[in-house]
Specification:
Elements lengths: L30 E4 L1 H5 L9 H14 L3 E5 L5 H12 L8 E7 L2 H10 L6 E8 L2 H8 L3 H22 L4 E8 L6 H15 L7 E7 L6 H14 L6 E7 L6 H10 L4 E4 L13 H10 L11 H12 L20 H13 L35 H12 L5 H18 L5 H12 L5 E9 L5 E9 L2 E9 L2 H13 L3 E10 L8 E9 L4 E8 L2 H20 L4
Parallel strand pairs: 1-2, 1-8, 2-3, 3-4, 4-5, 5-6, 6-7, 7-8
Antiparallel strand pairs: 9-10, 10-11, 12-13, 13-14
Helix pairs in contact: 2-11, 4-6, 6-7, 7-8, 8-9, 12-13, 13-14, 16-17
Length: 556
């Protein structure tokens, strides 16, 4: 092998005894905190400008976020100016608290409080890195020195809060690189910070436990959260927060298990934007709760608006397979999936207040999407998908046997063109295939006879020339078939016959679906359309007959 896996070591589990989180069920939404404007923004090739950040902030408020991390004010003039603009222009609603991030360094902390001058309320988010790797490789400091740095920052926050107005501030602390920190030491540092802040029921403190780098499976993160939750001082006055990254692609799972393990709060970004592989996707976690019958306390009912402002502001694009929002997530190409969705949508009419449709965990309409793209057609599609499109979009109730026949034609056409077929192409191909009026076409028919015998006289256009034929039978269809068989010397029988009014276009017209068997029981299909129901049936028979003539090479 060219990949040298021996350079890596498995992450050691913490050996938590009597863990309780595996049996928990999430029954309530956590406190949400968007970090799009800080963690998400700093991960962009071109960070947002002031106007973009203001518009994004307003949209986050509209979605229902009550806590929004607006940046790292000491990091740049743009970050500082954004914070000041929100405050000075009174853009922060009364029920929203902004959050700012600061390292545990004196000049940065002081600059951060300067940015918050006049803010009615704010969360000051203090952090320093505590992991073994960071201590040894980056800082070259001992455990005690790292803890002292955290305590120093906590004391300075206390002092500056007194200076600027204590009642306006809440505090948050993050042991950065928490997942790479020894759990007993992580708790030790957090408790030392809490001893300085002395949280109360009226003034709770946020302790945020970030997987700054996702290093292990989500169950280990959950064990880490439960361990800290059980061993942290002042726990009843601590809001335990999560901030998951996605280096292993498990940020959402880690967050959900972390909530089960005792977390009260979640920091994340829309669509998972963030450094490297990104943050936990807060939208997915919220809608996951929604699908379990839990109020997410965020409003994603117009998700397209969120996509638009996100893409416009960040320059990023939503992947077509992104959960809940990608262009293809409500789309089925597979034939068996399409058939199941079609049946589920039909069954839904019996219980519209309970969403139960195979392969669709959420009603697209609940996030402002339409049903149109649910079933799309390519060479992998089956009869269920094709028939759903014809019925849902054009009101054509195609019989099951004809569905199967047409699905093979669709598969061949999609293969030939090597692409997906759109709805109009499918509709047009259906009529091109089954509404065949060459070489034989019915222009007029006349019904007569007496008693149980019906006589039908028909004017046909055969290769452009008029011909009249006549036959007898026990009904119009039987009499017409008699005349056709005698005229063209072809033996067949009508096996399937169904009819309905057209729901698409002029509703006074009828469409008839015909299946014929030849003498060897081979099936041929045709349709006929007319305002006269009998005439639509006779036209359908001739359409199928034209297929027989073409298949057998019979010239007329």
């Amino acid at each position: 092998m060219s990949m040298n896996y021996t350079r890596y070591r498995a992450f050691s589990p913490i050996g938590l005894k009597n863990r309780t989180w595996p049996d928990k069920v999430i029954e309530k939404a956590p406190i949400w905190c968007s970090v799009d404007l800080r963690d998400g923004n700093q991960a962009l090739v071109t960070p947002m400008n002031l106007d973009q950040k203001i518009n994004f902030f307003k949209h986050l408020v509209k979605l229902g976020f009550k806590e929004i991390e607006v940046g790292f004010p000491a990091a740049s003039d743009t970050e500082f100016a954004f914070c000041r603009t929100l405050i000075e222009k009174n853009l922060i609603p009364d029920d929203v608290t902004i959050q700012v991030l600061t390292q545990s360094r004196e000049h940065i902390i002081r600059r951060t409080f300067e940015a918050l001058e006049g803010c009615p309320k704010a969360i000051v988010h203090l952090y320093n890195s505590t992991s073994t790797l960071q201590r040894e490789v980056v800082f070259g400091k001992s455990k005690e020195e790292i803890k002292d740095l955290a305590v120093f920052g906590a004391k300075l926050l206390n002092s500056l809060a007194d200076e600027y107005g204590r009642d306006r501030f809440r505090f948050e602390y993050s042991p950065e690189s928490f997942t790479g920190t020894e759990m007993d030491y992580a708790v030790e540092v957090c408790n030392a910070v809490l001893d300085e802040w002395k949280p109360t029921p009226e003034k709770k403190v946020i302790i945020n436990l970030p997987s700054t780098v996702e290093m292990a499976t989500p169950n280990i993160y959950a064990d880490q959260i439960e361990y800290c939750s059980k061993n942290m001082k002042y726990r009843e006055n601590v809001i335990l927060s999560l901030h998951a990254h996605n280096d292993r692609g498990e940020g959402i799972a880690a967050t959900e298990l972390g909530i089960m393990a005792g977390a009260d709060r979640v920091e994340g970004t829309l669509f998972g934007n963030g450094e490297r592989t990104g943050n936990c996707d807060i939208m997915v976690v919220a809608l996951n709760l929604f699908t379990q019958g839990v109020d997410p306390e965020l409003d994603f009912s117009h998700i397209t608006d969120t996509i638009n402002i996100y893409e416009k502001s960040t320059g990023m694009k939503i992947d077509p397979r992104h959960p809940y929002v990608g262009d293809l997530v409500y789309t089925a190409f597979s034939g068996s999936h399409q058939d199941a969705i079609k049946k589920g949508m039909k069954k839904l009419e019996e219980h519209p207040d309970r969403w139960e449709v195979p392969y669709l965990p959420i009603d697209p309409a609940d996030v402002g999407r339409s049903y149109d793209p649910i079933i799309r057609i390519n060479s992998q599609s089956g009869k269920g998908g094709v028939s759903y499109i014809l019925e849902h979009n054009y009101g054509l109730s195609v019989p099951r046997s004809m569905q199967q026949d047409f699905s093979l034609i669709i598969t061949g056409e999609s293969d030939r063109q090597n692409r997906e077929l759109d709805f109009k192409e499918i509709y047009d191909l259906f009529f091109k295939t089954y509404d065949v009026r060459d070489p034989i076409c019915l222009k007029y028919y006349y019904e007569g006879g007496s008693g149980e015998t019906v006589t039908v006289k028909s004017d046909l256009l055969i290769n452009g020339d008029f011909t009249t034929i006549q036959g007898k039978g026990n009904g119009v269809v039987d009499a017409f078939c008699d005349s056709v068989k005698k005229k063209f010397g072809v033996d067949f029988e009508v096996v399937s016959y169904s009819q309905h009014s057209l729901d698409y276009g002029n509703k006074s017209r009828a469409i008839t679906y015909i299946q014929l068997h030849d003498e060897s029981q081979k099936s041929y299909y045709g349709i006929g359309i007319s305002v006269n129901t009998a005439k639509s049936s006779l036209r359908g028979i001739l359409s199928a007959l034209n297929h027989i003539l073409a298949d057998k090479g019979i010239e007329v």
